[in-house]
């Protein structure tokens, strides 16, 4: 993400209810895994925020509907109204740079090993 965006990451959020500068959103089933969140924090060496509310798609639809119907006049008012209900877990990187680099190199090695495993003539069976 750093390479693609050209920006230094500071933290990852499962959702960004508060408008934070330079945050990236993560969601989906794996975001409920303590281990996966810690691995990401260790690998990226940034804070990862995971809210207690895991139904992010439904929450987003409800927020959009509420804004469209005038429940809140704008995102700032909505944020203020919901701030008492916002609980989250925060995962911070625990690895030093040498350990982090070793794990990153191992991951890149694994990705490289996964290339080219499809055998000639069997593509139609693997689709």
Describe this structure in words.
- The protein is of the alpha/beta class.
- It has a domain at 2-54 and 86-106.
- It has helices spanning 2-5, 34-44, 56-68, 75-82, 97-114; strands at residues 11-13, 23-25, 47-51, 88-91.
- The protein has a four-stranded mixed β-sheet.
- The protein has five helices and four strands; from the N terminus they run H-E-E-H-E-H-H-E-H.
- 43% of the residues lie in helices and 12% in strands.
Main β-sheet: number of strands, strand sense, barrel status? 4 strands, mixed
Q: What is the strand tally?
A: 4
Distance between the termini: 29 Å
The structural class is: alpha/beta
Number of helices: 5
Overall form: extended
Query: Strand order across the biggest sheet?
Result: 2-1-3-4
* N-to-C order of helices and strands: HEEHEHHEH
> Radius of gyration, Cα only, in angstroms?
19 Å
Q: Which regions contain 5 or more consecutive residues with pLDDT less than 50?
A: 14-23
| Helix proportion range | 40-55%
Proportion of strand residues: 5-15%
Mean pLDDT: 77
